[in-house]
Amino acid sequence: MSYMEPEAKIFSCSNSVYLAEKIAKSYGIELGKVTFSEYSDGEFQPSFEESIRGLRVFLVCSTFPSSDNLMELLLMIDAAKRASARHITAVIPYFGWARQDRKDKPRVPIGAKLVAKLLESAGATRIMTMDLHADQIQGFFEKPVDHLFASTIFLPYVKSLNLENLTIASPDMGGSKRAYAYSKFLGSDVVICYKQRKEANVIETMEVIGDVKGRNIILVDDMVDTGGTLTKAADMMMERGALSVRAICTHPILSGSAYEKIENSQLLELIVTDSIPLKKESSKIRVVTCAELFADVMHKVNSNNSISGKFLM
């Protein structure tokens, strides 16, 4: 007697449909139908247009700003719980508010912990996400967290470049663990950038620890926001004799003048995933989809199979 995988359904928040459709196609099912009713004052209400009683539901929603995305996810989780779903997995390719993972000065919130509690209180029974800004955020949850790494889709691309004299670089001290993990799999050297900020999104000073002369550099980071750190690091490394500088960033937030900074910098290429939709196209930005990664892990979770093979870092 062959084993039948339990039935599952995939639904999406309104701003993540572009990715959810690719995940559903890779999973092998149609994206579930959900509608959003909106009141004139901006209040909205999701409604599942098909039965989910007794099923595992995957709710795909990256919680990038505005906060409406997070609110949509919370309401969908609550609706699924009240519709008697058996398991409710919040699939959050980009986990927003993750930079608030600790008190870095007095009288500030720990936003990531608050979001974790909100998701659990709404009724999520499992969390699936990718490249959290800080690994310890997993500990904010009492429910299982599948923390996937985009390295599983980035590394094949990097290897396909066949770069000689490859060096992996971290744009800051906090990303050194990620840089060393990439270098281990690629057999490359590592350099670290040391930076000091005057305030959020504003860099005061930056220095490079290590030799970049005659090397092809790949900067690795979990996200790119204003692009200030990456472009400053790329320009500095080229000034110090690097042959080329590319960057790998999982989540393309790309706010403010990020696109202009990237276009005007000496970055040869910025490789990102589609965890967040690009606001516009750029000749320097290459998007690698994470849909197959999530679909594969969702299959394994639904059939109670191990997903440890997806953790390259």
TrEMBL record:
Reaction(s) the record says it catalyses: D-ribose 5-phosphate + ATP = 5-phospho-alpha-D-ribose 1-diphosphate + AMP + H(+)
Any one Gene Ontology BP term: ribonucleoside monophosphate biosynthetic process
One matching Pfam family: Pribosyl_synth
Record keyword Transport present: no
EC number: 2.7.6.1
Highest taxon above the source species: Bacteria
GO molecular function, one term: kinase activity
SMART domains, alphabetized: Pribosyltran_N
Sections of the chain in a coiled coil: none
Keyword Transmembrane helix annotated: no
GO terms under cellular component: cytoplasm; ribose phosphate diphosphokinase complex
Residue ranges constituting the Ribose-phosphate pyrophosphokinase N-terminal domain according to the UniProt record: 9-123
Alphabetical keyword list: ATP-binding, Cytoplasm, Kinase, Magnesium, Metal-binding, Nucleotide biosynthesis, Nucleotide-binding, Transferase
NCBIfam families in alphabetical order: PRK01259.1, ribP_PPkin
Name of this chain's protein: ribose-phosphate diphosphokinase
Organism listed in the record: Flavobacterium rakeshii
Lineage: Bacteria, Pseudomonadati, Bacteroidota, Flavobacteriia, Flavobacteriales
Gene: prs
